[in-house]
C-alpha cells in the first residue's frame, strides 16, 4: 500500500507517479498480474528516500528548537 499519489505532496517522485498511473490506465486487467510491479517497486523506493529526507530535516529542526528552548530556560532561571 502506498500513500495517496498526489504530485504536489511528492515532488521527488512525480515522474514515477505519473508513469505508475499511466501503467494502471493502459493495463486495467494486466495490472493485477504484475504488469506495473516494476514501477511500484521504484515508487516504494522513492517514497522511502523522500521520507528519510523529511525525517532528517525534521530532526535537524527539532535540535535547533531544543537548543533555543534550553537557552530560554537558562535565561529564565537566571532571572
The portion of residues forming beta strands comes to under 5%
Low-confidence stretches: none
How many helices in DSSP terms? Answer: 2
Total strand segments: 0
Structural class, by secondary structure, is mainly alpha
Instruction: Give the SSE string.
Output: HH
Task: Report mean pLDDT, rounded to a whole number.
Answer: 92
- The CA-CA distance between the termini, in Å, is 54 Å
- Measured as a percent range, the helix fraction is 55-70%
Shape: rod-shaped
Radius of gyration (CA) equals 21 Å
Largest sheet: none
Descriptive overview:
The protein has 79 residues and is mainly alpha-helical. It has two helices and no strands. The longest helix has 42 residues, at 37-78. It is rod-shaped, with a radius of gyration of 21 Å.
Amino acid at each position: 500500500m502506498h500513500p495517496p499519489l498526489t504530485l504536489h505532496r511528492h515532488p521527488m517522485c512525480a515522474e514515477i507517479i505519473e508513469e505508475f498511473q499511466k501503467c494502471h490506465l493502459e493495463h486495467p486487467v494486466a495490472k493485477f498480474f504484475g504488469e506495473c510491479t516494476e514501477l511500484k517497486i521504484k515508487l516504494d523506493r522513492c517514497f522511502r528516500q523522500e521520507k528519510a529526507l523529511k525525517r532528517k530535516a525534521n530532526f535537524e529542526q527539532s535540535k535547533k528548537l531544543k537548543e533555543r528552548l534550553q537557552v530560554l530556560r537558562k535565561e529564565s532561571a537566571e532571572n
